[in-house]
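R.M. (postdoc): so does anyone remember the format we settled on? I'll just put the structure tokens first.
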């Protein structure tokens, strides 16, 4: 391959290898190549056989040409447009211009000397000596060290940034903006600009101060002589303002005319600075040899103004005559010796000291510490005594040197810091440097090192050479008006005076030259829109408008007129600039961005942070209020750029921080769901686009803005149909359209466009993948489909239904605004009106949250909130309203409350229960007597308990009627979605609608009006509180219309004038295809149990009751008759109490099973009166027993809520004691000693044994039919079988053991073998272990056997209870044992054994609704419903109460039934005709004599 590239190069243009795909080649694939070189390089390109990469070269250059371009890169001259923006803004080729040769400066001329010139300035010459005198050598040294350290650390950070690529003209502004982003860059750039501008004002003020005080004081327009105090100060400031304005105008004119003149004079100004500093050092050296003569006159210890005296003495001797001096005349009222003089003048002597004692004088010790002065205080010499009479009048102060301002340490810091600024001079000239990445660090750090050494040495030398009173004399009034530092200079003070004058003039010109260019650079970046005008200038690029603004701002500093007041201002701006330079370096270092590769290696993030901390500290040390103002200005600019500025992507560090912070926050969000207090709607707005890629429902975005108010996550998503490769451009247009609309509606969020083969899948993808990590939407907003009834909109509506289903599966809240085009825009205002909330089902607080969020927006702010809740007619509506008001009060929601009463048939029981959840909670609170705080916390949990992601309520349908899979599929009711309904036309309110309804949901639709009402019926897993099969099926449209139409009418009536109506939307249909799967019908799951129980009822009980030899017809046929009647009657009675809805009894296989259980109760009781009652009596008995049983069952399950899976309590105990009570009333004394026909035969015993076998085989189905599907039902079958086996073996053993001749008795085998099935009944679905089931079978068998042998005769003889079939032994005793075993199993049940499924088995022990533990359990067991929170002991007590109440109800009902059966008209048989079929049946002719047979039987027994 390489050989082909290097050798096969002879093919010229037009060869096959050069044809490519037929697209024309670009004229030049090289960067920034001139026209002549283009031809040459293109020829080289054509001959290189690179056709494989032709397509890429159309948009990307060859590597060789790129490297050539970079190697030959030369930066543009200072002040020209930044190269980044030039590349972005230039469109098309421009005419070639003559290249401008940029000067190739080195480190010395390009960086070092400019920095020296900018750093050394007016403060050194005008304020350094005064600072040393006021602050002392130590204090001044600390100030200088802090400031110099700050600039050194900043220079290190700046060097790292400057060597990490090219720094264009603009210096620090570009460093910060490209490192910290346009917001920080613009804010700090403006601060740097203002600092530079005010620096120009400071230099001009310094220039004027030198001119008017030290060079030509006579030029002052406002005369100061003769004035003192405020008048003198005002005159001085006015002079500064006038001359400052003149000088500013002149300098601005010079800059405007041409910067080249300023640049030519720069070397002269630099020479002045260097010569002045050298003159100072020369003067210091000279003081060691020959100190200059600068006498200072003191009166006492006070420094006198030199112009106030001619001789430093009170009197002098002239020709032996004492003559008073000018000083005398200043303090006395005449020239005479006896004149009246000032007390202080009279009491103190005049002394003259040397102002410059020299470096060897030891004056350093006196100047070591500070001497801060108040304004107007006289400058005094330390260590010199003076006499002051406290009672004397104050002397005139204009003859002494006074402190012009109040001085303190922080003031000195603020005044001094400008003298260390100017470190950016080298970086600002980076375009003029030969090797900027090498020169900037070396030159800047060397300049700072040089200036720092000069400053620190000057502090020490000034303190060592100059008298303290001279140092504190700011304007040199005590040394003949000389510049104090000039008194030290050699050969003459005028060297310093003129040097500093020209230096300040040059620095002022430099500031007025640099500041406009900085502003121009900021303006041309376009990040601050209102400054764009200042980016224009003259034809040569000079910033004319920026210069005008700079001069205007500079004039503000001139008007301030005080150098001491201006210096802290620019200190703030420079410190802020330096602080962000350090921050930029630290962030780039810590973020470790791939592009951060500075050539300068001697930096560290800790040094940058230290420099930033020093800058921030110095800002507040200088002036805390100036610091706050400067930070306020920067903050305002930052926010302005953030909201109004142009968006720039510079790869800045703040963006890197944002990315890192976002990643960190997303990872934190992954740790767990947010607390309910932090929950807010994170909305995914699904919109559709028209053919032009414009949003069809823009009001959805308006509603989002009103709902969100810029808070939380908002994603606006849409789908484009097609393929990604073909429709990418279309998707880009859609994305831009979404962004534009979101910007117009002021919605802060993210647009998201997906391309999919169809819109349905695209919407599904948005719902699935919207968001990132833990930051995902929890709410979906989609508009109600328009014209959904029209055939052409059928697909659109089907897509809508799929969205509803998908949000349900994803546990997302769904907001569906209807008539979205009628919603208010963000510019509209409602001055009045209501937002109505119809609280139909409790949704975790979402309905309460929505109006609260909406009312935060100005559109809905004046709308009031009304809450409607629904109650039944027999409820206490007044109390309910009070409870709702209390509930809202604790939620801090202000709303009107109205309770709407509806008939029972208009609202389901479950909906009513869920609506009244707050009333129930309030009642519980009252019973618990909680404190106010506890009550508030408890009420808050109502909304907190289910808001996590607006978790949907579960319709915890009994899983006993389904398989495990069906229970998982049908056991969950979809979350109640939230629907927004807006009505601008009060006459036609709109409501939500849906074409089909899921199970358990009732609603209706009329002409464009429909109200959804979520409903979930309460169910339990108890065997006699099972849901009928009809609840698993879709209900008819008739019922839907009936149950919701009335509610719809009420909503329309009550909310007619409302601006907005909010209510719950019913869940989506579970059946997506609207087709019923036959195999999903409950008949295939429940019918096998039904068939087994049928065999038990009609064959098992029938054969078992046919054991009398002459009453076989009666036992079997009357069982058939009574069973058939009882089942039908039980369907009606149980249906009325348990399965009646809307006035109708719902029928299913589960109803039949429950009815057969009621029938079993009647047949067991039938055994107690077998052979002694007529068929009519039996029917009446069934007619009365079934209602008593149904009421008892309903009351026990509804109020006591027990566990009785096998029916030991409600079936066996009830049937036993009901039958015993009936036979007690029907007592026949003659039958007490036996009856001749009360015998069996060989054939009847075999038939009875067949009944026993039928019951034995199918008893597991009887015990497990209504237990929970799955493990509970599995355990019930196993335990029943084991118990039956145990009782069978025990029965055979006991029968032989207890029989005198050791033989087996058929009566024992026929009855006692079944005792195990009853004994395990109460605990059959619990984890009692197989051994316990076996033991229960044995114990039950023993009790039953002993009862037959010993207890039954006692009951007949002593208690008048003739138990014909021994039901007390088989059902009563074993039922009591089973109940006791169930209670024990409940007491010992622990979660360690059962796991979370314990609360499925013992459903009433599950935590209450609102308990956090319930949510944890529901996460482990989907479909687990809230319980009563009972303890094991409490549940056991309820089991005991159920036993006694059941026995009592059965006994009372049995006695009353027996009394009815004694009515003569019911054809009760006589004692002689008992146990005989001839009374009711046509008996075959070959029947035998019962008496003879009885005698033969006795004979056989005697022989045996």
């Amino acid at each position: 391959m390489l050989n082909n590239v290097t050798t096969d190069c002879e093919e010229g243009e037009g060869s096959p290898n050069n044809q490519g795909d037929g697209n024309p080649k670009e004229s030049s694939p090289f960067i920034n190549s001139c026209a002549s070189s283009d031809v040459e390089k293109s020829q080289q390109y054509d001959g290189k056989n690179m056709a494989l990469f032709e397509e890429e070269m159309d948009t990307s250059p060859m590597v060789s040409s790129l490297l050539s371009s970079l190697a030959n890169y030369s930066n543009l001259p200072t002040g020209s447009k930044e190269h980044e923006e030039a590349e972005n803004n230039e469109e098309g080729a421009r005419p070639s211009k003559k290249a401008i040769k940029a000067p190739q400066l080195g480190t010395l001329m390009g960086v070092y000397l400019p920095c020296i010139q900018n750093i050394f300035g007016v403060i050194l010459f005008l304020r350094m000596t005064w600072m040393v005198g006021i602050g002392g050598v130590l204090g001044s040294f600390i100030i200088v060290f802090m400031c110099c350290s700050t600039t050194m650390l900043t220079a290190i950070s700046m060097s790292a940034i400057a060597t990490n690529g090219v720094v264009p003209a603009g210096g620090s502004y570009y460093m910060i903006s490209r490192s910290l982003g346009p917001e920080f860059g613009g804010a700090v750039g403006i601060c740097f600009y203002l600092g530079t501008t005010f620096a120009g004002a400071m230099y001009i003020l310094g220039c004027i101060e030198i001119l008017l005080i030290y060079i030509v004081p006579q030029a002052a327009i406002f005369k100061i002589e003769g004035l003192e105090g405020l008048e003198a100060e005002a005159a001085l400031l006015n002079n500064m303002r006038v001359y400052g304005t003149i000088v500013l105008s002149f300098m601005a004119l010079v800059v405007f005319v041409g910067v080249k003149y300023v640049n030519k004079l720069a070397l002269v100004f630099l020479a002045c600075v260097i010569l002045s500093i050298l003159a100072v050092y020369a003067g210091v050296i000279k003081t060691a040899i020959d100190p200059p003569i600068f006498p200072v006159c003191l009166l006492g210890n006070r420094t006198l103004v030199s112009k106030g005296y001619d001789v430093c003495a009170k009197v002098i001797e002239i020709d032996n005559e004492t003559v008073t001096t000018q000083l005398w005349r200043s303090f006395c009222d005449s020239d005479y010796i006896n004149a009246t003089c000032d007390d202080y003048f009279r009491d103190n002597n005049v002394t003259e000291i040397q102002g410059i004692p020299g470096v060897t004088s030891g004056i350093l010790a006196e100047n070591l510490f500070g001497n801060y002065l108040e304004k107007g205080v006289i400058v005094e010499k330390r260590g010199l005594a003076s006499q002051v009479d406290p009672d004397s009048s104050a002397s005139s102060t204009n003859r002494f040197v006074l402190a012009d301002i109040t001085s303190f340490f922080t003031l000195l810091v603020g005044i001094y810091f400008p003298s260390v600024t100017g470190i950016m001079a080298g970086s600002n000239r980076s375009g003029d440097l030969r090797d900027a990445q090498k020169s900037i660090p070396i030159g800047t750090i060397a300049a700072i090192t040089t200036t720092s050494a000069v400053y620190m040495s000057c502090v020490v030398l000034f303190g060592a050479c100059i008298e303290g009173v001279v140092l504190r004399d700011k304007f040199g009034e005590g040394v003949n008006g000389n510049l104090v530092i000039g008194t030290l200079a050699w050969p003459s003070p005028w060297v310093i005076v003129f040097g500093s004058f020209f230096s300040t003039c040059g620095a002022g010109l430099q500031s007025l030259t640099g500041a406009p260019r900085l502003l121009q650079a900021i303006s041309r970046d376009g990040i601050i829109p209102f400054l764009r005008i200042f980016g224009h200038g003259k034809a040569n690029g000079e910033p004319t408008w920026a210069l005008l603004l700079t001069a205007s701002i500079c004039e503000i500093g001139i008007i301030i007129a005080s150098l001491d007041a201006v210096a802290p201002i620019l200190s703030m701006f420079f410190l802020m600039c330096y602080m962000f330079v350090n921050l930029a370096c630290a962030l780039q270092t810590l973020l470790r961005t791939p592009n951060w590769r500075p050539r300068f290696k001697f930096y560290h993030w800790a040094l940058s942070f230290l420099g930033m901390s020093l800058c921030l500290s110095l800002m507040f040390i200088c002036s805390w209020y100036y610091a706050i103002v400067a930070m306020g200005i920067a903050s305002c600019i930052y926010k302005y750029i953030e909201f109004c500025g142009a968006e720039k992507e510079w790869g800045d560090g703040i963006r890197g921080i944002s990315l890192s912070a976002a990643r960190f926050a997303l990872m934190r969000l992954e740790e767990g769901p947010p607390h309910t207090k932090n929950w807010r709607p994170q909305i995914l707005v699904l919109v559709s686009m028209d053919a032009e890629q414009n949003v069809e429902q823009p009001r959805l975005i308006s509603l989002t803005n009103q709902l969100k108010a810029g808070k939380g996550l908002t994603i606006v998503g849409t789908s484009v149909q097609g393929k990604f490769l073909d429709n990418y451009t279309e998707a880009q247009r859609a994305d831009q359209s979404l962004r534009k609309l979101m910007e117009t509606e002021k919605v802060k969020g993210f647009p998201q466009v997906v391309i999919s083969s169809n819109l349905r899948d695209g919407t599904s993808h948005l719902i699935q993948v919207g968001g990132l990590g833990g930051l995902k939407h929890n709410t979906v907003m989609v508009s109600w489909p328009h014209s959904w009834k029209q055939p052409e909109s059928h697909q659109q509506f089907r897509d809508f239904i799929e969205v509803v289903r998908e949000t349900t599966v994803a546990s997302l809240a769904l907001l569906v605004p209807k008539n979205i085009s009628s919603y208010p825009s963000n510019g509209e205002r409602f001055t009045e009106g209501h937002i109505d909330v119809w609280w139909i089902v409790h949704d975790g607080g979402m309905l309460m949250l929505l109006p609260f969020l909406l009312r935060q927006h100005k559109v809905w702010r004046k709308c009031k909130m009304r809450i409607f809740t629904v109650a039944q007619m027999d409820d206490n509506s007044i109390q309910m309203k009070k409870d709702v008001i209390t509930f809202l009060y604790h939620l801090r929601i202000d709303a009107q409350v109205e309770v709407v009463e509806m008939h029972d048939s208009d609202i389901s029981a479950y909906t009513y229960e869920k609506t009244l959840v707050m009333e129930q909670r309030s009642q519980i609170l009252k019973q618990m007597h909680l404190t106010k705080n506890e009550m508030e916390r408890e009420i808050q949990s109502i909304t907190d308990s289910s808001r996590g992601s607006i978790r949907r309520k579960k319709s915890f349908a009994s899983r006993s009627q389904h398989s495990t899979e069906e229970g998982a599929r049908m056991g969950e009711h979809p979350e109640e979605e939230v629907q927004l309904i807006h009505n601008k036309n009060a006459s036609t309110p709109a409501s939500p609608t849906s074409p089909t309804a899921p199970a358990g949901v009732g609603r209706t639709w009329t002409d464009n009006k429909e109200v959804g009402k979520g409903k979930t019926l309460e169910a339990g897993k108890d065997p006699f509180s099972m849901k009928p099969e009809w609840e698993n099926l879709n209900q008819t449209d008739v019922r839907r219309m009936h149950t919701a139409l009335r509610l719809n009418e009420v909503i329309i009536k009550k909310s007619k004038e409302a601006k907005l109506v909010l209510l719950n939307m019913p869940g989506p249909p579970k059946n997506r295809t609207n087709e019923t799967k036959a195999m999903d019908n409950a008949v295939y799951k429940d019918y096998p149990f039904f068939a087994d129980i049928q065999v038990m009822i009609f064959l098992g009980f029938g054969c078992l009751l046919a054991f009398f030899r002459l009453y076989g017809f009666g036992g079997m046929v009357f069982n058939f008759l009574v069973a058939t009647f009882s089942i039908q009657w039980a369907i009606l009675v149980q249906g009325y109490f348990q399965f009646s809805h809307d006035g109708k009894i719902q029928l299913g296989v589960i109803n039949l099973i429950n009815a057969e259980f009621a029938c079993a109760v009647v047949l067991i009781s039938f055994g107690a009166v077998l052979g002694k009652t007529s068929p009519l009596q039996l029917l009446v008995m069934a007619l009365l027993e079934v209602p008593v049983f149904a009421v008892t069952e309903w009351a026990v399950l509804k109020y006591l809520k027990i566990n009785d899976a096998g029916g030991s309590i409600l079936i066996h105990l009830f049937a036993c004691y009901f039958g015993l009570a009936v036979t007690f009333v029907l007592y026949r004394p003659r039958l007490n000693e036996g009856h001749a026909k009360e015998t069996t035969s060989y054939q009847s015993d075999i038939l009875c044994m067949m009944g026993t076998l039928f019951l034995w085989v199918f008893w597991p189905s009887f015990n497990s039919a209504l237990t929970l599907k799955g493990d509970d039902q599995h355990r019930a079958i196993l335990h029943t079988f084991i118990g039956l086996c145990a009782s069978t073996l025990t029965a055979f053993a006991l029968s032989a053991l207890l029989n005198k001749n050791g033989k087996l008795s058929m009566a024992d085998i026929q009855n006692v073998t079944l005792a195990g099935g009853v004994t395990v009944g109460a605990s059959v679905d619990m984890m009692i272990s197989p051994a316990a089931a076996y033991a229960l079978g044995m114990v039950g068998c023993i009790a039953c056997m002993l009862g037959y042998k010993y207890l039954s005769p006692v009951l007949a003889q002593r208690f008048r209870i003739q138990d014909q079939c021994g039901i007390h032994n088989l059902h009563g005793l074993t039922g009591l044992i089973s109940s006791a075993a169930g209670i024990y199993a409940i007491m010992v049940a622990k979660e360690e054994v059962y796991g979370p499924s314990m609360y499925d088995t013992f459903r009433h022990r599950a935590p209450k609704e609102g308990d956090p533990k319930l949510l944890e359990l529901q996460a482990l067991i989907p479909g687990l419903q809230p319980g009563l929170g009972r303890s094991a002991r409490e549940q056991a007590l309820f089991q005991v109460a159920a036993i006694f109440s059941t026995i009592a109800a059965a006994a009372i009902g049995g006695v009353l039934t027996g009394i009815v059966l004694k009515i003569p008209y019911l054809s009760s048989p006589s004692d002689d005709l008992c146990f005989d079929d001839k009374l009711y049946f046509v008996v075959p002719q070959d029947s035998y004599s019962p008496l003879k047979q009885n005698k033969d039987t006795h004979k056989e027994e005697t022989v045996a």
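R.M.: ...and that's the designed sequence above, right after the tokens. Also worth knowing: The radius of gyration is 52 Å. The CA atoms of residues 414 and 568 lie 4 Å apart.
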